[in-house]
TrEMBL record:
Pfam families cross-referenced by the UniProt entry: FCH, HR1_TOCA, SH3_1
Similarity section: Belongs to the FNBP1 family.
Protease as UniProt keyword: no
SUPFAM superfamilies xref list: BAR/IMD domain-like (SSF103657), HR1 repeat (SSF46585), SH3-domain (SSF50044)
Biased composition (Polar residues): 295-305, 431-445, 498-521
Composition bias type Acidic residues, residue spans: 460-470
Domain F-BAR: 1-266
Domain SH3 span(s) in chain numbering: 540-605
Protein name per UniProt: Formin-binding protein 1-like
Coiled-coil residue spans: 126-205
Keywords: Cell membrane, Coiled coil, Cytoplasm, Endocytosis, Membrane, SH3 domain
Length: 606
C-alpha cells in the first residue's frame, strides 16, 4: 500500500509533541530489547534443563548390561537427540545475544545521542526566535510611548501658541519640546521598523530553513528506530528458522530411534542372557516301597516331594554375589582368584551357558588387545629401524625399552588368551546334568587324583599338578567333604589315616562334620557310644542364606531348596562353587547337603 509521506516540518507548531514522541519511540525500542533479553534467558535455561534432563537419565554403570536391548539403545539415541536440541537452543540464545541484543543496544545509544543533539539545536533556535520577538516587542513599546509623548508635546505647543497670556519665550520652549519629542518618536519608529524587519527575517528563516532541518533529523531518527525494530524482529525469526532444519533432523532421529525398537530381538536377547543351559528334570521314577528299606524310602519320598515343586533355573545374576573373604577362609582353598566384580577368574560360579559367553567375550577382548599391542610393537620396530638407518632422527636405544615392555605385555596377553581358551575348552566338555557337588569329587593323594564315589570305591588318576575337570564336571574338594558324603552313605573310608588337608578348610575346625575329622586309627578305634555322642554334636552355623532360585538335588550330597527358603550355612564355598547348608526337618531332624553358591545369598555372622 502506497502511503503519502508528509514531512515532519509540516508539524512546525508541534515541536514539543515531536520531542515526546521520539522519546517514547526510544523507550519502546528498549522495551523490545528487554523482551529479547527475557527470551534469551528462557532459551538458555531451557537448554540447560534439557542437558540436565539428558544427563540425569543417562544409563548408569550398573545398567550397562541392559544396553544391548533395542529399547534401551533407542532411549540412549533419544537422549543424544535431546542433547542436540539443547545445543540448538543454545545457538538460538547466542545468536540473539550477538545479533539482536547488541544491535538494539548500539542503535538505542545512537538514537539517544542524535535526539539529544536535535533537541539541543531546536531549543537554541526556539530561544533565538523568542529573544528576537521580545526585542521587537520592546521596540514597539518604545515607539508607542515616543509617539504618545510627541502627540502630547504637539498639543501643548498648540495650546501655548494660542494662549495670549504666555510670553514669546514660553511659547518657544513648548515648541522646542515638541520638536524633541517628534524626533524621539521618529527615532523609536525607525528602531521599531528595523527590529520588525530583523525579526521577520529571522522568523522566516526559522520556520522555513532552521526548524525544518531539525524536524527532518528527528524524522530520520524516528524512521531509523522503526526500521531497526523491523529488522530486529525479522532477524529474531531468522535465528529461529536457521536452526529449524537441525531441530527437524533431531526429531527425525527420535522417530528413527523409536522405529529401531524390535520386540522380537529384545526377547531373543533376554533368552540369550538368562538361558542357563541346565537340562530340565527327568520324570520322577516310581518307587516300590515294598522293595526298599523304610529309611531309604522315607528319604527318597522326601526328595521327590521337594523336587516336584522345583524348576532348574539359570541366571547371570550370580555375578552380583560377591565372594566373602574373612576369617573363615584362612584355611580354605582359593584355586580360582576373583575378578574385580567378584566373579571367579574362570567364571565357574556361573551357569554353563553364561560361563561360555563370558569366556568367549573375554577371549575376544584379549584377541583385540593382542592385535593392538602387536600393531604398536610393529610400529616401534619400524621406528627403531629408521633410527638405526639415520641416527640424526633419533636414538634407537630410546625405543628399545618400549619394545621390551611391549613384548612383555604381548607375552602376558598370549598367556592369558591360552588360559582362557583352556577354560572355554573345559567348559564345552562339561555335561550340564552332572554339575553337582558330589559328582566325582576328587582328592589329591601322593601325587594321584583319588575320585571317591558314593559307594566308597576309589579311582586313581595321574595328574600333572594342575586341577583338571573330571568326567563329572565338578571341581575337586577336600578329603573331609568326601568323608562327609561317605558318612551320609554309611561309609567312613580314610586314606593314610588323615583327611584334614589344608585345602579343605575343615580340618579340626568347628566347621567339620562329626566323624570326619582326623580319620586316624585312634579315631577309628573310638567306641560306638563315643561316635554317636560326637555325631550328635551339631556344627555351629557360620551364618544364614536365602535361596534366590529353586534348586533340584540331582546327585549325592546335594539337597533341594525352594526359592526364598532360609537355610543355615555350616561351610562356606571353598572355591568349587558349592556351599554346605543345613535345614530343620521335622521328620528326620536336620538335613545337610550342598547347594550352588550362585543360587543363594549368604549373610555370615560377625
Amino acid at each position: 500500500m502506497d502511503i503519502k509521506i508528509c514531512p515532519f516540518f509540516s508539524l512546525q507548531d508541534q515541536y514539543d509533541n515531536l520531542a515526546i514522541h521520539t522519546s517514547k519511540g526510544i523507550e519502546f525500542l528498549d522495551k523490545y530489547a528487554n523482551f529479547i533479553r527475557d527470551r534469551l534467558a528462557i532459551e538458555t535455561e531451557y537448554a540447560a534443563k534439557l542437558r540436565r534432563l539428558a544427563k540425569n537419565y543417562q544409563p548408569k554403570k550398573k545398567e550397562e548390561d541392559d544396553n544391548e536391548f533395542t529399547s534401551h539403545q533407542a532411549f540412549r539415541n533419544v537422549l543424544k537427540e535431546i542433547n542436540d536440541l539443547a545445543g540448538q537452543r543454545e545457538v538460538v540464545a547466542e545468536s540473539l545475544q550477538l545479533q539482536i541484543i547488541q544491535g538494539i543496544t548500539l542503535l538505542s545509544k545512537t538514537l539517544r545521542e542524535e535526539r539529544k543533539k536535535c533537541l539541543s539545536n531546536g531549543t537554541y533556535l526556539q530561544q533565538n526566535l523568542s529573544s528576537q520577538l521580545s526585542a521587537l516587542e520592546r521596540a514597539k513599546r518604545n515607539y508607542e510611548k515616543a509617539y504618545r509623548d510627541s502627540e502630547k508635546a504637539v498639543d501643548n505647543y498648540k495650546k501655548a501658541d494660542m494662549d495670549l497670556n504666555l510670553s514669546r519665550a514660553e511659547v518657544e520652549r513648548y515648541k522646542n519640546i515638541m520638536t524633541a519629542k517628534i524626533q524621539q518618536s521618529d527615532d523609536a519608529k525607525n528602531e521599531y521598523a528595523n527590529q520588525l524587519q530583523k525579526t521577520n527575517n529571522l522568523q522566516q528563516q526559522h520556520y522555513n530553513e532552521l526548524l525544518p532541518e531539525v524536524f527532518n533529523r528527528l524524522q530520520e531518527l524516528d524512521e531509523k528506530r522503526t526500521r531497526g525494530i523491523r529488522e530486529f524482529i525479522i532477524g529474531a525469526a531468522d535465528v529461529e528458522s536457521s536452526v529449524a532444519p537441525i531441530i527437524a533432523r533431531c526429531l527425525e532421529g527420535m522417530v528413527k530411534a523409536g522405529e529401531s525398537i524390535n520386540e522380537k530381538e529384545d526377547s531373543y536377547k533376554v533368552i540369550e542372557r538368562y538361558q542357563s543351559g541346565f537340562t530340565p528334570p527327568t520324570d520322577i521314577p516310581f518307587e516300590d516301597l515294598s522293595k526298599q528299606d523304610p529309611e531309604s524310602s522315607q528319604e527318597s519320598h522326601y526328595n521327590n516331594v521337594q523336587s516336584s515343586h522345583l524348576t532348574v533355573k539359570g541366571t547371570i545374576s550370580a555375578n552380583r554375589i560377591k565372594k566373602r573373604v574373612g576369617i573363615f577362609n584362612i584355611f580354605g582353598s582359593n584355586k580360582n582368584s576373583l575378578t574385580a566384580d567378584g566373579q571367579k577368574e574362570d567364571f565357574s560360579d556361573l551357569p554353563p551357558n553364561q560361563r561360555r559367553k563370558k569366556l568367549q567375550a573375554k577371549i575376544a577382548e584379549l584377541q583385540q588387545k593382542i592385535a593392538q599391542e602387536t600393531a604398536a610393537r610393529d610400529g616401534l620396530m619400524k621406528m627403531k629401524v629408521v633410527y638405526e638407518a639415520n641416527s640424526s632422527l633419533g636414538n634407537p636405544m630410546t625405543v628399545e625399552g618400549q619394545l621390551n615392555e611391549s613384548e612383555h605385555k604381548l607375552e602376558k596377553l598370549k598367556i592369558d588368551l591360552k588360559k582362557y581358551q583352556g577354560y572355554l575348552e573345559r567348559a564345552n566338555q562339561i555335561p550340564m546334568a552332572s554339575n553337582s557337588p558330589q559328582a566325582n569329587r576328587n582328592n589329591l593323594h601322593n601325587g594321584h587324583r583319588v575320585s571317591r564315589h558314593s559307594n566308597g570305591s576309589t579311582e586313581d588318576n595321574n595328574e600333572d599338578g594342575d586341577d583338571q575337570p573330571d568326567d563329572g564336571g565338578s571341581l575337586s574338594r577336600s578329603d573331609s567333604e568326601d568323608n562327609v558324603a561317605q558318612i551320609q552313605n554309611g561309609h567312613n573310608n580314610n586314606n593314610n589315616g588323615s583327611s584334614a588337608s589344608p585345602e579343605s578348610g575343615l580340618g579340626t575346625s568347628h566347621t567339620s562334620l562329626p566323624g570326619s575329622g582326623q580319620g586316624s586309627a585312634h579315631d577309628n578305634a573310638m567306641g560306638e557310644d563315643a561316635y554317636y555322642e560326637t555325631e550328635m554334636e551339631l556344627l555351629q552355623p557360620l551364618g544364614t542364606c536365602r535361596a534366590l532360585y529353586p534348586f533340584e538335588a540331582t546327585s549325592e550330597g546335594s539337597i533341594p531348596m525352594n526359592e526364598g527358603e532360609v537355610l543355615q550355612v555350616i561351610e562356606i564355598d571353598q572355591g568349587d562353587g558349592w556351599t554346605r547348608v543345613r535345614r530343620l526337618n521335622n521328620t528326620n531332624g536336620w538335613d545337610e547337603g550342598f547347594v550352588p553358591t550362585s543360587y543363594i545369598e549368604c549373610t555370615l555372622y560377625a
